[in-house]
Amino acid sequence: MTTRAELPHTESPAGPTRPPSDDPPFVPLRVAVAALLRKELGLELRAPQAVPAMSLFSITTLVVFHFALQRGQVDGDLASGVLWVTLLFAAMLGISRLFVADHEEGGLDGFLLAPTDRTAMLVAKAVGLFAFLAAVEVVAIPAFALMLLGPSPPIAAYGQLAALLVLADAGIALVGTMVGAMAVQTRTRDLIVPLMALPLLIPVVIGAAKGTAPLLATAGPHSVEVRWLFVLGLYDLVFGLLAFALFDYLIED
Amino acid sequence: MAAPPAAIELEGLTRRYGERVALQDVTLTVPAGTTLVVFGPNGAGKSTLLRVLATLLRPHSGVVRVLGRALPDDGWAVRGRIGLLTHEPLLYRDLSGRENLRFHARLHGVAFDRVEELLERVGLRLRADDRVHTYSRGMVQRLAVCRAVLHDPDVLLLDEPRANLDPAAADLVEPLIGAASGRTRVVTSHDPAGGLAEADIALGLRGGRTAFVAPVDHVRNAEIGALYR
After folding, report:
1. What is the separation of C-alpha A6 from the centre of its chain, rounded to a whole number of angstroms?
2. How far apart are CA A56 and CA A60, in angstroms?
3. Which of A2, A134, A139, B80 could cross-link A115 (Cys pair, CB 3.0–4.6 Å)?
4. ipTM entry
5. CB–CB of A8 and B152 under 8 A?
6. From the CA of B22, how many Å to the nearest CA of chain A?
């Protein structure tokens, strides 16, 4: 960690005017990201909120699909659609909660007072949300396989599914962080999040669902078309740049 | 002897929330190392003034300079040199006192030794590993004082800093946030005698407008009382 070597660490009880330091202090982005991420994950481990709620919601949604579809097993396009709708709706819960502690307990103001790049908050929140989504998928995907999926795809398909999940989660995390930052400043954040995030995430759903369908098809081919990976990668790039450009304005006054 | 440089300069500062004017045409200068006390009833604009000076709110018109830097454009240059203590402690309730201070120490590039020193000075060392939501209001306020002065700021912005503190606790934090700290301070207060005693300049706000701004020697208790009627 960085230490301000020039910082006098004692007060001057009887001193007259303190000479102000000339050089503006600045904390590097990576240090601030590490501090924010440590706090983010620490809070979730200490007082779990987002991950248990998202996991429970995803399992409940799968149960609802199980009964609503009136089918014991699904495969192909339908299985892919069920999986991604479930994951996306679960993500909405995480996005809604993403900035709540920071907003209600003043942590956002505390961060805004720090001499560091505001992009640190974007990076830390997006990485944190990505980690939450990954944790939820560790629970939701086996539950999906047990409750709804037909014959299990070959082992090789899981690697491709993981690639799709990483790219789709990155997109959800970037858009979710932007939308969460906007929504938390309103009184109707629980309405704003799905109304804003779901339309923005339609390309992710298209790419992820189209890419996943052949992996879950009973008859194969059990391989992802590269173009869907490209679509998701391009989406991540575009929204990553957009988030980088806009995030300061979203969290500032 | 030359006058100390201005730490805070406001010229025609105006700030609105939608249609409502929170601050209107506020002009004053606070020399470095001096204390400005701000009086005014609830909603007069005191907290808004502090948030503008802390770079958390943008001025809608007028000139705001803190430590010689114009806000909001040069806000990045003064953020690490400002300490803000508001009614909200800016602390995470599910983290311990020590974890909260270490979090802010990382964000300000301050060594953890400073965290331990401050916990000791405000008498919280023995409760430092307890979660903040288990603290009394006075303990939270003491921890918030630690957070505000953690990075040894040149300017302290204090919104009723002794609220929730008993006399003993107030004595503990006095060297950190009192006039003897040598920092430039802006303090809001509802206590005319106490406020004037610790300040060099007094500002009276009513409805966001300046009712008076003068050296404390020139301000009468009656003028302060009139703000609240």
Report:
1. 38
2. 6
3. B80
4. 0.93
5. yes
6. 15
Range of the domain at A104: 29-251
Alpha carbons A150 and A71: distance in angstroms, whole number: 10
A203 domain-assigned: yes
Token reading at A182: 């906007």
Could you give the number of structural domains in chain B?
A: 1
Supply the range of the domain harboring residue B150: 6-227
Joined together, the tokens standing for residue A44 give: 């979730």
A5 reaches B (C-beta below 8 A): no
**Residue range A187-230, pLDDT digits in tens:** 888 899 999 999 999 999 999 999 999 999 888 777 889 999 99
| pLDDT one-digit tens code per residue, B181-208 | 889 999 999 999 999 999 999 999 999 9
CATH number for the domain harbouring residue B214: 3.40.50.300
Q: How far apart are CA B198 and CA A252, in angstroms?
A: 33
Residues of B in Cβ contact (< 8 Å) with A2:
109
Q: What pTM value is reported for the model?
A: 0.90
| DSSP one-letter code for A2 | -
**pLDDT at A22 exceeding the cut of 90:** no
When divided into structural domains, chain A yields a total of 1
Q: Is A18 a member of any domain?
A: no
- B71 has pLDDT over 80: yes
Residue B1 lies in a domain: no
Is A20 inside any structural domain? Answer: no
In a domain, A7, yes or no: no
CB spacing of A35 vs B103 below 8 angstroms = yes
Question: What is the nearest CA distance from A128 to chain B, expressed in angstroms?
Answer: 16
Q: What is the C-alpha to C-alpha distance for residues A17 and B182, in angstroms, rounded to an integer?
A: 5
Work out the minimum CA distance from B96 to partner chain A, whole angstroms.
10
B116, closest residue in chain A (CA to CA): A9
